[in-house]
UniProtKB/TrEMBL annotation:
<dbReference type="Pfam" id="PF25443">
    <property type="entry name" value="ANG-1"/>
</dbReference>
<keyword id="KW-0037">Angiogenesis</keyword>
<dbReference type="InterPro" id="IPR036056">
    <property type="entry name" value="Fibrinogen-like_C"/>
</dbReference>
<dbReference type="InterPro" id="IPR057439">
    <property type="entry name" value="ANG-1/2/4"/>
</dbReference>
<keyword id="KW-0732">Signal</keyword>
<dbReference type="GO" id="GO:0005576">
    <property type="term" value="C:extracellular region"/>
</dbReference>
<dbReference type="GO" id="GO:0001525">
    <property type="term" value="P:angiogenesis"/>
</dbReference>
<feature type="domain" description="Fibrinogen C-terminal">
    <location>
        <begin position="265"/>
        <end position="485"/>
    </location>
</feature>
<dbReference type="InterPro" id="IPR037579">
    <property type="entry name" value="FIB_ANG-like"/>
</dbReference>
<feature type="signal peptide">
    <location>
        <begin position="1"/>
        <end position="20"/>
    </location>
</feature>
<keyword id="KW-0325">Glycoprotein</keyword>
<keyword id="KW-1015">Disulfide bond</keyword>
<dbReference type="Pfam" id="PF00147">
    <property type="entry name" value="Fibrinogen_C"/>
</dbReference>
<dbReference type="GO" id="GO:0007596">
    <property type="term" value="P:blood coagulation"/>
</dbReference>
<protein>
    <recommendedName>
        <fullName>Fibrinogen C-terminal domain-containing protein</fullName>
    </recommendedName>
</protein>
<dbReference type="InterPro" id="IPR002181">
    <property type="entry name" value="Fibrinogen_a/b/g_C_dom"/>
</dbReference>
<dbReference type="InterPro" id="IPR020837">
    <property type="entry name" value="Fibrinogen_CS"/>
</dbReference>
């Protein structure tokens, strides 16, 4: 160790040895020198029982030729010296012990230093490790914060969407309640109408009963009159004729009343065409529901119940130009216009009706001067859409020309968007409307409606060539069909 031991140089002087003959022993140890003065050995007689012990002993037995007093002094001085020595030794010991203790402390301190250094090193390591951990933790925290903010943004978006949906639902609810209000209003109106209808029906039935009573009274009167044959027979006959006429009128009225009271029933029965409606007893022209054969839904058509015995189903009608006839394939397929005015019933309906059994076609025309003409075909039908509604007609007659103005059998239907004619041009666009154009053919009842008298030849007008040539201005046209066996 770097701590130099402070050594005290001690000189042991044997107090008992004063004379110069006493020998001095010097021991050099480092910077210290130890001087021992040993008692004279030549004055001491060797004795057999001389031994070196730690115990206080006489160095030599008293020789007989020596002074006993002097020997005793020597012993005393020796004892004192020994005591001194012992004391020194003790001091030395304590000193050494002290030194050793301080050394130990030093050692301990240095150990502590080493430990401290090691601890410092470990501490530094720990610090750097914890710094690393802290860095990682911070990273994780940022990531978590990022995630959290993203989730928060999403939540915000969701809540926005939810708000919008709620608003929407609120609007829907308002709409529903509004509709409910409207619905209840309509229901009230409907029930009012119903009660009115029932009342009307009751009135009509009452009228019918009254008429029946009247009829009975009249017939009784007739029999009475017939009974009194002695009266003026000519007068009687005339009266009878008048009465019979009245009775017939009354009967017709009663039938009419019956028709009125059973009209709802008539409506619920669906007829195939106007001929069936006519046969059921309805003789008034007007708009009726029919259901063509193989068709799932009813169609409104105009029934002509007067012309040539009635029962005609009108498939085309022009009279004032109110409806645009320059339409596409789909419109001509499904039909368009208003059955109570101008309309085209629809190619599908025409096909279904005219192929269910044999049909005749009646074409009725009127020009600007009011002249009327008709064309009549004994047989008429058109194919289905997969054959482009090809036309088939035969057995022509009538006043609108000596030759048929309809195209040849097998001519396909064309519209502005489906060109099936035999012309390199597009007849449906040149002549306008949908028709059985050949190239482009002598007729087109679906052309443009021109009102009034005019000398201008128009190729895209309503045309029926063999009646009046290309310049005909037609102010009315009707196409209608009826079963051959009507
Ligand atoms: C013992 O030592 C002391 C000094 O420390 C000295 O005065 C004394 O005379 C010595 N005694 C003997 C017997 O040498
Ligand atoms: C946080 O998220 C954004 C995208 O929302 C991304 O661009 C960015 O890199 C992210 N930051 C961290 C530290 O992950
Ligand atoms: C019968 O009626 C005719 C015509 O009204 C009349 O001229 C004639 O006098 C009448 N005869 C009798 C007997 O009333
Ligand atoms: C109606 O349907 C039947 C069976 O599908 C068929 O035989 C008949 O020709 C159809 N009639 C018309 C007019 O299409
Ligand atoms: C019907 O017309 C279309 C074009 O408009 C054509 O492609 C098709 O071949 C025609 N069908 C027949 C059976 O000719």
């Amino acid at each position: 160790m770097g701590h130099p031991l402070v050594l005290v140089c001690l000189a042991f002087l044997s107090t008992a040895v004063i004379d110069s003959e006493k020998r001095q022993h010097r021991v050099q140890h480092g910077p210290c020198s130890y001087t021992f003065i040993l008692p004279e050995v030549e004055h001491c007689l060797p004795s057999k029982d001389f031994q070196v012990t730690n115990s206080l002993q006489r160095d030599s037995p008293p020789s007989p030729d020596q002074d006993p007093a002097r020997g005793e002094r020597m012993v005393e001085s020796l004892e004192a010296a020994t005591e001194n020595n012992t004391r020194w030794l003790q001091k030395l010991e304590s000193y050494i012990q002290e030194n050793v203790r301080s050394g130990m402390e030093e050692m301990k301190r240095s150990t502590v230093h080493t430990h401290t250094a090691a601890m410092l090193e470990i501490g530094t390591n720990l610090l750097s490790q914890s710094a690393e951990q802290t860095r990682k933790l911070t990273n994780v925290e940022t990531q978590v914060l990022n995630q959290t903010s993203r989730v928060e943004i999403q939540l915000l978006e969701y809540s926005l969407v939810t708000n919008r949906l709620e608003k929407h639902i609120l609007q829907q609810n308002q709409e529903i309640s509004r509709l409910n209000d409207k619905n209840s209003f309509l229901e009230q109106r409907f029930s009012a109408l119903e009660t009115r209808h029932v009342k009307e029906l009751q009135g009509i039935q009452r009228e019918k009963r009254q008429l029946q009573e009247l009829l009975e009274r009249q017939s009784r009167l007739v029999t009475l009159l017939q009974g009194s044959s002695s009266l003026n027979s000519t007068l009687l006959q005339r009266q009878q004729a008048v009465l019979t006429g009245t009775v017939q009128q009354l009967l017709a009225m009663v039938t009419h009343c019956n028709d009125i009271s059973t009209q709802p029933k008539v409506e619920s029965v669906i007829f195939m065409d106007c001929a069936e409606i006519f046969r059921s007893g309805v003789t008034e022209s007007g708009v009726y529901d029919i259901r063509p054969p193989n068709s799932t839904h009813a169609v409104k058509v105009f029934c002509d119940m007067q012309t040539r015995g009635g029962g005609w189903t009108v498939i085309q009608h022009r009279r004032d130009g109110a409806v645009d006839f320059h339409r596409d394939w789909r419109d001509y397929k499904m039909g368009f216009g208003d059955p109570s005015g101008e309309y085209w019933v629809g190619n599908d309906v025409i096909h279904l009706i005219t192929t269910s059994k044999e049909y005749t076609l009646h074409v009725q025309l009127k020009d600007a001067e009011g002249n009327e003409a008709t064309s009549y075909y004994d047989h008429f039908y058109i194919d289905a859409e997969d054959k482009n509604y090809s036309l088939h007609s035969r057995g022509f007659s009538g006043t609108a020309g000596r030759t048929s103005s309809l195209s040849h059998p097998g001519t396909m239907f064309s519209t502005k968007d489906r060109d099936n004619d035999r012309c390199s041009c597009k007849c449906a666009q040149m002549a306008s409307g949908g028709w059985w154009f050949e190239a482009c053919g002598p007729s087109n009842l679906n052309g443009i409606y021109y009102a009034g008298v005019s000398n201008v030849v128009r190729y895209n007008g309503i045309k029926w060539y063999y009646w009046k040539g290309p310049g005909l201005i037609t102010t009315m046209s009707t196409m209608m069909v009826r079963p051959v066996d009507f």
